[in-house]
Amino acid sequence: MLRPVKKIIIVGGGTAGWLTAGVLASRYNTEAEAGLEVTLVESPDVATIGVGEGTWPSMRTTLQQMGVSETEFMRECEVSLKQGSRFENWVTGVNDYYYHPFSLPQAFGEFNLVPQWQKVRDKISFADAVCQQSQICDRGLAPKSITTPEYAFNVNYGYHLNAGKFADFLQRHCTEKLGVKHVLDHVTEVNSRPDGDIDSLNTKESGVLAGDLFVDCTGFAAVLIGEHYQVPFHSVRDVLFNDSALAVQVPYRNSDDPIASHTLGTAQSAGWIWNIGLPTRRGVGHVYSSAYNSDEQAERELRNYLEPIVGRRESEQLELRKINFNPGYRGEFWHRNCVAVGLSAGFVEPLEASALVMVEFSASTIAEQLPADRSMMKIAAQRFNHKFTRHWQQIIDFLKLHYVLSRRADSEYWVDHRHKKSVPESLQESVTMWQQQAPWLHDAPRFDELFSSASFQFVLCGMGFLSRDSAPPLRADDANLALANKLFNDNAKKTAQLLNVLPANRELIDKVMEFGFQKI
Amino acid sequence: MTNFVLLDPKEHANLRVITEHSADYGDNVKFAMTFPFEFRNIQSCYPIFFQKDPGSGKFYPVALFGFENDENLFLSDAGWDAPYIPVMIKRQPFLIGFQDDQDKPGEKKAVVSIDIDNPRVSESAGEVLFPEQGGTSEFLQKATGNLELIHQANAHSEKFVNALIEHDLLESFTLDIQLNDGSANQLLGFYTINEDSVRELSGEVLGQLNEQGFLLPMFMVLASHSNVRDLIALKNAKI
Fold it and tell me: What's the predicted TM-score (pTM) here?
């Protein structure tokens, strides 16, 4: 008996729910006779948590494919442009910093610049040597100018945004332009079919919502995947210790203060502080481990951090919001005819802003591999689970790398992070390899890898890790050196040109408010 | 650099404006902004393309005079050799500006400014602005008329461009030019109307564009493309 997959019910209306709705409803015709029906049901009074105010460059493609105007998005969601992250005090704890930019190194994919850069590492940072973005960020410049068409760029970028406004914006776009049905009601009961599939959901006032595939976007509550199906949760607190956060909205002192075009991540005694510049305010937060830091001490460190930014009085008065989380992910994301997207699937500290990109990846995978009928769903689910388990493991390895390479020894937290028992075996193996071979394409062998080996290069080189190349000399050693020098010179020229023409990040954002980007 | 000041009959009583065209007077420009109202004249001499304003990213139509910066192929020792000179060139060295109207609070009135550092501005040669017998010269009246025309044309031009964008008719293009001496030139950074997209417009949209007065200028832009050939010939004649 073939049950066609025609009705998708998404439960939960945060960014995860609306992004999934938008991705599905823009790929499939929702108006046609036999078209896909996408319904999103959300409780009227459940506050969305608004994780991750930083996105990856992938969000540009996601929005473009949904038919969103970048100008409208920027005007309505308090958006600024993000070009990567700057990590401060992660290596020694004393005035060290490095960039993990969104741009790839020059000639990436064809030629590995790491071994060549290592020879000049005392003179120039890896990021400055191989791409333009770190210096562009240093000067607070934007990744494009007002004459650059929407979604196009001089250097790659994603966004910083107000997640609450983003969810509202997506809701309007999905319901007004993409034919998504919106039900504002409480889900009171999950009705099962005899085979264990979800048949329908009872709501308080809107009757029964029957569906073929149910997407759980209910956040930490995980109403379907957790509460209903009891799919086990795999905690990684023994690897990534952070499980608490104190978040705060920090006003600018002057309305024309510069807006940083990168996320700032500053290491603390037992955690780190994020600092994200929106056009209207900064979003700041201290994410830390409750096993190594008390809430009081964490608050003290956060307020000390804020003092030079907003002054002593305000730094003591700003209201903090506490968030607790259990870092980890589900044993299965797609179970029977239910798939979890967003926090219900898993969450780890926002060190590399991986929350929203995982939502985008999940939504596009569901859309692309949407089974036509129930008989195919088991295979689709298996593939999905395999793929996303791999993504989670890679995220965890990559985040852990930031801690493993640290030389900080000012607290047990940093020391314990380097204890072998807390480092996944896969990461231990990689680090062992990197001691002899600079990170390269083999480190991210799949086409759909979340982090490319360029990301590994930026973090390893940024944190001063040295690959001691003990292989025999190459026939191409001279040619490689010449090519590297040419690439370094090209990059220096391109950097100088861009520093000359790019506007300040705030200046560009103001212009987008006034004039908007052109489509071409 | 320009230095615009409000035109004042007392302060600028002795000023004159040179109307000849030459590189010395700043006419060595690759293109100038143009407006739909003059497209009929423009398309008989110059290619019309679109360009983005670097400050706002907004498109505006331009008449093209050359292929390289500071190159105006219509300029020779004898002056500007074309039957029609775009109004934005003719307006030099004046500009229209707006200031609060003291008689009608809350409203703005148009005022004429002059770029006193413009090489056309002289005290010895050129057209008189304020004749000794008082009042304003015919030349200045005509110049003021041109400024008003530009002001009105600007608003209309913006609507025209918005209509082109709304119907996805603009596209960027690169023009590769092979000159007689074998050298290759490339024209970059301009936009034009895509003829295929125009052909695909529905009767309904064409009707709307016609009612708005945008259809004729669209076709004049398309017709002006043939002037690129003449422009290349001018360039070849100079090498």
Answer: 0.91
